[in-house]
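Protein Record: Sequence and Backbone Structure Tokens
======================================================

Structure line: whole-number tokens from a learned vocabulary of local backbone shapes, matched to residues.

Purpose: to set a sequence beside its fold so the mapping can be learned.

___
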Amino acid sequence: MIESAHLDSFVRDNLPDPSLWPDLILDHPSATYPDRLNASFELLEKTILLVGAEKAAIIASDGKYSYGQLLDLVNKLANYLKSQGVLSGNRVAIRGPNNAMTVALWLAILRLGAIAVTTIPLQRAAELEKIVEVGKIQFALVDHRFTEEWNALTNYSGRTIIFGGENDFLPDVMKQSPIFPICDTASDDVGLLAFTSGSTGIPKATIHFHRDILAIADTFSRHVVKPTQNDIFSGSPPIAFTFGLGGLVIFPFRVGATTVLLETASPPILLDKVSEHRISCLFTAPTAYRAMLPLLAGRDISSLRRCISAGEHLPLATWRAWFEATGQKLIDGIGATELLHIFISSSDHEIIPGLTGKPVPGYLAKVVDSNFEEVADGEHGFLAVKGPTGCRYLNDERQSNYVVNGWNLTGDIYTRTADGYFKYESRADDMIISSGYNIAAPEVENALLSHKSVAEVAVVGLPDDARGMIVTAYVVLRPEFIASEVLCKELQDHVKNQIAPYKYPRSLYFVDSLPKTTTGKLQRFRLKQEISEAD
């Protein structure tokens, strides 16, 4: 490792042993960096050299900022935070919505050489306490509208600084100098801690370097999104979610594009903003694309040229419906908080509906069995990935579960085609084995989603004495449909007509909603827990 600029070495001291790291590909032409760099400098000063200080950077509810104006604000914030005692290597939590101040604070923390820990406004005190405990948070920057849960913490003894409202720190910030001596961070100094969303119930802190922040822009964004300075980005994922951090901040700032940040981004609002701001690059989850479909009539979305889907599996039915309605090919992608962003995807003519895509330039991928032997094309196995980013958990014994033989094991079941495309089958714990048959839950979900009555669905395998497990579906209906035994039978028959009949859901329940994480990921394990507890 390169000599660190961090005065506070807690995170660096608690990196996994290097023998437990994945092999990193650091010599790919798209993602090769000098020993010393600061991501905040790269995303502001370097970008201003490309597009000029007057170029629009952010459009948000709390203001519009050119790149020059944003740089001045970030420098003033960095000076203010330094005056409050923030040191390089300190962990600084940000609790705010998707707006200009949240982004400026994130960039200021990096500029100081401190470590940004973004939290999602929807997170409750119990979730925040885990973040505070694992990350040993010392400072917290909290939007005045989201103080209630933060103030309810029982294990936080650091300094809390409020922004917005009556006690806003902005008057003091604006007294600061717009010039700040940027911390001379190493390329492998830690820039952020990103917590896994907890789709398996137990979140982990993933460690990412300054070079990692640039690498996701120089691989996935550069080669798949293919942005230009004329693009306008927007979307729904929180900035605290790495899908949102990349798509709404890092990717546009890397090329000098403009980002439209939305504090609330329901499907109707997203569509309104696409028309209002002529958004060209949209980032959101498959469920949001599906929810927007019935709202498209009369709306001008002709500005869209890139629609990126991630955060959960993209059903083929959703891909087809969006393409038929808009002519836009959804860009599917699989990423992980552990690797910061997307590492398998395709765009333009390379997109094949129903397939995730090929490894993004800079990354390698393969499908392996339980002995870590590569399987033949077409056979199910575990997805293994390596590239310029990779898993490093903060002081977590689960590191050796995720990294095996130098590869990141994502916990996904995949197949690979003879042409080198990767096809998602299921999460490793979503494979249902019933009467000796392997049944992938997402395949059954996709079949159900192709029925006109289904808005959302989750499929799990539940224990059964006769079959080992049975396929069980939880269905959220569209508002115009009413749950009934007749509709249940219709849906079961529909699945039998779409895929092999043995895969149909022998149990089917109509529900009002599905359990999800604060980032919108489906939590199938909670469905299983609820059934188990009911029994």
